[in-house]
Write a structure and sequence with these properties.
CATH class of the largest domain in chain B: Mainly Beta
Largest sheet of chain B: 5 strands, mixed, barrel
Number of helices of chain B: 4
Strand content of chain B: 25-35%
Shape of chain B: flat
Strand content of chain A: 35-45%
CATH architecture of the largest domain in chain B: Beta Barrel
CATH topology of the largest domain in chain A: OB fold (Dihydrolipoamide Acetyltransferase, E2P)
Structural class of chain A: mainly beta
Distance between the termini of chain A: 44 Å
CATH architecture of the largest domain in chain A: Beta Barrel
Structural class of chain B: alpha+beta
Largest interface: A-B, 13 and 11 residues
Protein name (chain B): Exosome complex component RRP40
Pfam families (chain B): KH_6, RRP40_N_mamm, RRP40_S1
Oligomer: heterodimer
Number of domains of chain B: 3
Subcellular location (chain B): Cytoplasm; Nucleus, Nucleolus
Radius of gyration of chain A: 22 Å
CATH superfamily of the largest domain in chain A: Nucleic acid-binding proteins
Distance between the termini of chain B: 62 Å
Number of strands of chain B: 17
Keywords (chain B): Acetylation, Cytoplasm, Exosome, Isopeptide bond, Nucleus, RNA-binding, rRNA processing, Ubl conjugation
Radius of gyration of chain B: 23 Å
Main location (chain B): cytoplasm
CATH class of the largest domain in chain A: Mainly Beta
Number of strands of chain A: 16
Helix content of chain A: under 10%
Chain lengths: 194, 256
């Protein structure tokens, strides 16, 4: 590896014939420009051109990509959608939470028009969801729970006690024995800690 | 929490209970002090189906009181316990018929003040015979009698003025004139009981129209303004009058 040299955003690094653009860079008019302020990193690959990327000192924020499974917390619900805060991407926690939206038709895969948001999620539930769209500048991430493995993993009952799932659509409170409706996730056995 | 022993539910019937009190049901009196031994009937209803009514919540072995008031018991049909509490603040409940005041007309949706924490929403299509061309004539400040279809603590309440078959069955815009006033929720429940004496005695006095909303609002209309105000005063005073005082007051009025 070559020694790292600092660069600023907008600095022209080299032409696209000499290297390929990596993370933190973009190509314009046949040249590679930096899009971040950080250190220039040139990595030599054997078969292809070397890869040029710009890295910052601190770890770069992990951004959810389309198709990534994220862990989020429901903050408010509506008859049309549920608003969530994205806390984890995969198994890495995020330093600052992103906002996401789960629309009513993305909650379940079957019988989409009979879904009631109140019977699937409640505020303060922890939900596993998949990113289906990054959204545009003003809107949030669009998420979906339309799979068996996605849905509510942790929920508290009205009495404040953590509930136990009893089916894919019901959870029961161990203290008051009342059942509440949720869209429950079927967590894969390898992720359960016994 | 498990260390505090509760008192027997039967001993407290008719007495004041406060939130946090734990009531023990008959099957669990001779439980161990530690409560370690699991009984086969632990967590299940003692005899038949015991109904846990408003103001109570099931908690492990017994019932936890969540509202202050008098504890009541009905032994019929497996037994039922509930707490009779005074309340003036209304909390929207699905299926309740309430009187709302239109505050905002926003496109396709009206916002109604029902006395709860949030204004309720009412779609213009939720009236009998309403279509996109045939809109109901609702203005800001109108009174509407309708029922809740969505009412919980997490979402904004939604009202409709039709029942499940599409008929209005008495719901809709309440007409002009008349008088709207507010009473406590307990009085509304008393007036809505079948064969309520107050309503029967009042109807012998003057003829009048009456709409009772479960959110504590009553709308009255009689032939003249004076008769309307007399009925309003009697209904407001009924909360604190005994039956004899009420009969005396009505006798004095009908004598006039």
């Amino acid at each position: 590896r070559q020694p790292l040299s600092p660069c600023v955003a907008g600095e022209r690094l080299c032409s696209t014939e000499e290297a390929t653009a990596g993370s933190g860079t973009y190509t314009r008019h046949g040249f590679i420009f930096s899009s971040l302020a950080g250190c220039l990193e040139r990595r030599n690959e054997d078969s292809e051109l070397p890869v040029v990327s710009v890295v910052r000192d601190s770890e770069s924020q992990l951004l959810p990509n389309v198709g990534a499974v994220v862990t989020c917390k429901v903050c408010s619900i509506n008859s049309r959608f549920a608003k969530v805060h994205i806390l984890y991407v995969g198994s890495t926690p995020l330093k600052s939470t992103f906002r996401g939206t789960i629309r009513r038709e993305d909650i379940r895969a079957t019988e989409k028009d009979k879904v009631e948001v109140y019977k699937s999620f409640r505020p303060s539930d922890i939900v596993l969801a998949k990113v289906i769209s990054l959204g545009d500048a003003q809107s949030n991430y669009l998420l979906s729970t339309a799979e068996n493995e996605l849905g509510v993993v942790v929920a508290r009952s009205e009495a404040g006690v953590q509930m136990v799932p009893i089916s894919w659509c019901e959870m029961q409170c161990p203290r008051t024995h009342t059942k509440e409706f949720r869209k429950v996730a079927r967590v894969q056995p390898q992720f359960l800690q016994m | 929490m498990a260390a505090e022993r509760g008192t027997a539910a039967e001993a407290l019937v008719g007495q004041v209970v406060l939130p946090g009190d734990l009531l023990l049901l008959p099957a669990h009196y001779d439980e161990d002090a530690e409560g370690e031994r699991l009984r086969l009937s632990a967590g299940a209803a003692p005899q038949g189906r015991l109904l846990c009514g408003p103001g109570l919540r099931r908690s492990g072995a017994g019932l936890l009181v969540t509202k202050c008031g008098l504890l009541r018991h009905r032994p019929a049909g497996g037994g039922a316990y509930w707490v009779d509490s005074q309340q003036k603040r209304y909390v929207p409940v699905k299926g309740d018929h309430v009187i709302g005041i239109v505050t905002v007309k926003a496109g396709d949706v009206f916002r109604l003040d029902v006395g709860g924490s949030e204004p309720a929403s009412l779609s213009y299509l939720a009236f009998e015979g309403a279509t996109k061309r045939n809109r109901p004539n609702v203005q800001v400040g109108d009174l509407i009698y309708g029922q809740f279809v969505v009412a919980n603590k997490d979402m904004e309440p939604e009202m409709v003025c039709i029942d499940s078959s599409g008929k209005s069955s008495g719901m809709g815009i309440i007409g002009q004139d008349g008088f709207l006033f507010k009473v406590s929720l307990g009085l509304i429940r008393k007036l809505l009981a079948p064969k309520c004496e107050i309503i029967q005695e009042l109807s012998q006095l003057y003829p009048f129209e009456l709409v009772l909303g479960m959110n504590g609002r009553i709308w009255v209309k009689a032939k003249t303004v004076q008769q309307t105000l007399i009925i309003v005063n009697i209904l407001e005073a009924c909360e604190y009058m005994t039956a004899e005082q009420r009969k005396q007051a009505l006798a004095k009025l009908s004598g006039n």
